[in-house]
């Protein structure tokens, strides 16, 4: 056999092996999280190596403990889910309201400072969030905004805005100008053009950006930690879970149940919209 | 705004009739609309990002503690104390060094994994969509949840890694991966590569799929083997994206706080600058020192990026 044939055959097998390893490495931690969350802690201590839930072992007591209110002796995660949901939805909607006109302007209109705006967003996106966190911590402490969900939403908007504008801008640029021009000739004003022509065409991209923003806000940890830590009734799921681990001895299985509660909405959202999201995230990357 | 269609010959003559500068007005109108539409974005960005950055710099040169915060004005007494203190406190240089190793390790690891992943799922096969989606899981899942799972998996008592490591690989004793100096930093870097390879994967896959099929076909006809085709056809096409990913991932890892804080809390030789800043800010409530470190962090970062762009600038562009 010549070198070409050897390589082709061995690479074919290698490729299958590598795919299997990747699948194992990426999916296993989530599977493990799920398995641990439904096993009683005593069983886990006896047999830490088990990969399946034993017959008769299955329990949902961990979830009950996580979700029950603190008054009932639980960890009050239902409140946290409400907080996280509220913050994430508010941040997403407001980001889109701000980002859509901004992205349209950067994509289509020639105005003073347009190029600088582009650069500004990139710089902001890459700037260390801990640097921004210090003065925000100071301001929020002074203004009494620490512990308010509104303050957190405001921060999340600023965090998701640069990427949202960037992604939407890339999409707006792919819409043929001639479509907008014909609408203009038909007598539509600038806002009318945006609302009737550009927005409907950009819907897939807008959905992708909305999902992205939601995920960022739902997953965020640092700012929630800095601003909400003193107010247990305002905690988000991420924050609540991380502080649960610091507190008095909480069984690992309960922690895993909390992790599942935190992860599940994101995973469901993600698998429901995977195609939309991956294409939205890299559209424009081909130009590379 | 009314119609802005550039209709030659039937231009509405409202603002400046009979001057040849008519296009300028159109242009100006467009400019005004652009600024109006972009204004909310700019306002939010300046208020929540721009001003805080400037303020951090100001704070870095002031003596501020949380307790005295209400009394200090915005432009109080300026001092070089903080910077001086930060640069000379024991541990700062080490923190910077750890951050650098962590960033380079995480960047190289995630790009290498992402490249391999992109190469293996490039061609269609059954179940490709599911495989591709699964590979993105580490990136989209909440950081608090994935760091917990890793902690539990690596736990010396009930972690599955140590359990099977002792059974199958014959380890003598459980390895406390995240709490001993010799393994903690490496573990954190592996975690970083695991969590962020999907980012590199997405970009590299998109680029790979844009490589024209004829290129590879021609190389095949000329007798190039698969590894040669990768080396001489695909890799040169991917290099600009890899260079760009290098700078993006380096910056993001350099700034990273959550991952290290949640995995080790900065213990066992894994203290990166962000975690140290957080400690100064909350535990010691020394705002001046925290700000000074943050400024040093930003300056060091900017210097690195400039050096990088100097060497790879053409490729990134």
From TrEMBL, chain A:
<comment type="similarity">
    <text>Belongs to the binding-protein-dependent transport system permease family.</text>
</comment>
<feature type="transmembrane region" description="Helical">
    <location>
        <begin position="84"/>
        <end position="107"/>
    </location>
</feature>
<dbReference type="InterPro" id="IPR035906">
    <property type="entry name" value="MetI-like_sf"/>
</dbReference>
<keyword id="KW-0813">Transport</keyword>
<feature type="transmembrane region" description="Helical">
    <location>
        <begin position="119"/>
        <end position="141"/>
    </location>
</feature>
<feature type="transmembrane region" description="Helical">
    <location>
        <begin position="147"/>
        <end position="168"/>
    </location>
</feature>
<keyword id="KW-0812">Transmembrane</keyword>
<feature type="transmembrane region" description="Helical">
    <location>
        <begin position="205"/>
        <end position="229"/>
    </location>
</feature>
<dbReference type="InterPro" id="IPR050901">
    <property type="entry name" value="BP-dep_ABC_trans_perm"/>
</dbReference>
<keyword id="KW-1133">Transmembrane helix</keyword>
<protein>
    <submittedName>
        <fullName>Carbohydrate ABC transporter permease</fullName>
    </submittedName>
</protein>
<keyword id="KW-0472">Membrane</keyword>
<feature type="transmembrane region" description="Helical">
    <location>
        <begin position="13"/>
        <end position="32"/>
    </location>
</feature>
<dbReference type="Pfam" id="PF00528">
    <property type="entry name" value="BPD_transp_1"/>
</dbReference>
<feature type="domain" description="ABC transmembrane type-1">
    <location>
        <begin position="81"/>
        <end position="273"/>
    </location>
</feature>
<keyword id="KW-1003">Cell membrane</keyword>
<feature type="transmembrane region" description="Helical">
    <location>
        <begin position="253"/>
        <end position="272"/>
    </location>
</feature>
<dbReference type="InterPro" id="IPR000515">
    <property type="entry name" value="MetI-like"/>
</dbReference>
UniProtKB/TrEMBL annotation, chain B:
<comment type="similarity">
    <text>Belongs to the binding-protein-dependent transport system permease family.</text>
</comment>
<feature type="transmembrane region" description="Helical">
    <location>
        <begin position="287"/>
        <end position="309"/>
    </location>
</feature>
<keyword id="KW-1133">Transmembrane helix</keyword>
<feature type="transmembrane region" description="Helical">
    <location>
        <begin position="96"/>
        <end position="121"/>
    </location>
</feature>
<feature type="domain" description="ABC transmembrane type-1">
    <location>
        <begin position="96"/>
        <end position="308"/>
    </location>
</feature>
<dbReference type="InterPro" id="IPR000515">
    <property type="entry name" value="MetI-like"/>
</dbReference>
<keyword id="KW-0472">Membrane</keyword>
<dbReference type="InterPro" id="IPR050809">
    <property type="entry name" value="UgpAE/MalFG_permease"/>
</dbReference>
<feature type="transmembrane region" description="Helical">
    <location>
        <begin position="35"/>
        <end position="61"/>
    </location>
</feature>
<dbReference type="Pfam" id="PF00528">
    <property type="entry name" value="BPD_transp_1"/>
</dbReference>
<feature type="region of interest" description="Disordered">
    <location>
        <begin position="1"/>
        <end position="22"/>
    </location>
</feature>
<feature type="transmembrane region" description="Helical">
    <location>
        <begin position="233"/>
        <end position="252"/>
    </location>
</feature>
<keyword id="KW-0813">Transport</keyword>
<protein>
    <submittedName>
        <fullName>Sugar ABC transporter permease</fullName>
    </submittedName>
</protein>
<dbReference type="InterPro" id="IPR035906">
    <property type="entry name" value="MetI-like_sf"/>
</dbReference>
<feature type="transmembrane region" description="Helical">
    <location>
        <begin position="184"/>
        <end position="206"/>
    </location>
</feature>
<keyword id="KW-1003">Cell membrane</keyword>
<feature type="transmembrane region" description="Helical">
    <location>
        <begin position="133"/>
        <end position="153"/>
    </location>
</feature>
<keyword id="KW-0812">Transmembrane</keyword>
